[in-house]
Amino acid sequence: LLTTAPANPALASSGYNMTANMHAEENGQKPNVATEKDLEIEEPQKQHEQKGVGEMIMQLCLLACFMTFGPMLIMTNKHLMKDVGYDFPITHTFYTSAFCASAVWIYVLLTGTKLKKAPIVTREFYLKNIMPIGFFQGATIVLGMSSYLYLTVAFAQMLKAAGPVLIVVVLRFFGMSIPTNKVLAAVGVIVLGTVLSGYGEMNFSIIGVCTMMGAQVSEAFRLVMSQKLLNNLKFDVLEGLCYITPAAAFWVLLAALFVEAPRMNWDTLDLVKENWHFFVMSGMFAIGVNTINACVIKFTSSLMLKLLSTARAASLVLFNFFFMGEMVTGVQFCGYSISLAGFLLYNVYRK
């Protein structure tokens, strides 16, 4: 045994354990040493527990990043739009999209990362599956940022609670889900709460509300189509960013050239030079938001992303009320609470 010991120490130990158990049984004693079968059962259990702990840590880190990058991007963009006076939301969206796309592709080229799905990404595939996602992603950001020119951050976040209503409609449109009566009832509660939130807003703006709701419609389409690309077509997170962000930048650039470029002048360039650090911060936060959103959709679903977004929006409402001095009336708070309750019911009934 000493000269021909097995290479695997666990097998040697199990051989000793079986011998000890046999002697114990011969002497009428109860064996108390683990057998090889016991070890075979324990090892997968330990591996499963370690894997579960690792996944929990990853999910907690993902949640912390998700709750941080989004609000920071919103507050930075709001500062640029309203406080600095850079009222070019479409151009700024192109900048953040191009910034994110450049950073991702530089990483791919410097690290030599191979894109596994590159062979199937033909021109026809790109135009059919990725360009529409880029369009809706760009529309979501442009309309969402434009709403902050007319609405407070708190009220804009309240309107986002209507997101599940639009997701139900889009899923039904694509034939991916048929809502039950309970789901429709929860959607009705969300609509009621959103209407009350708008009724209680002191600085109500029809333009601001329309732009925010347009952003929510675009986001619903983007989420459903992104889930199809990442999950159904098995694209990983990096590949999704590599292909989607340039498409979003392309669509936004077209809009910026026709809508905002004619009214730009040298004062606009001076404004950018004076506040360059805020533009860099916005670009960095945009990379974080796009990466985290893609990770959440990849490892969970578009619905989970919407659930986390609603929880983040609620915290942002409270932050702006307590620390930024934005007014929230009693009717608004009541309506928003009803919307959140409807959102919780929506998630329960969908399961």
Descriptors:
single chain, 351 residues, mainly alpha, 79% helix, 0% strand, globular, disordered N terminus
Structure characterization notes:
With about 350 residues, the protein is mostly helical. Helices cover about 80% and strands about 0% of the residues. The chain has 13 helices and no strands. It has helices at about 10-25, 35-85, 90-110, 125-145, 155-160, 165-175, 180-200, 205-230, 235-260, 265-275, 275-300, 300-320, 330-350. Helix 2 (about 35-85) packs antiparallel against helix 11, helix 2 (about 35-85) crosses helix 12 and helix 4 packs antiparallel against helix 8. It is globular and about 55 Å long.
Main beta sheet, described?
none
**Fraction of residues in β-strands:** under 5%
Helix fraction, binned, reads: over 70%
Structural class: mainly alpha
Low-confidence stretches: 1-16
Order of helices and strands: HHHHHHHHHHHHH
Number of helices: 13
Termini separation comes to 58 Å
* Beta strand count: 0
Helices, strands, pairings?
Layout: H1 9-26, H2 36-84, H3 89-111, H4 123-147, H5 153-159, H6 163-173, H7 181-199, H8 206-232, H9 237-259, H10 266-274, H11 276-299, H12 302-322, H13 330-350
In short:
With 351 residues, the chain is mostly helical.
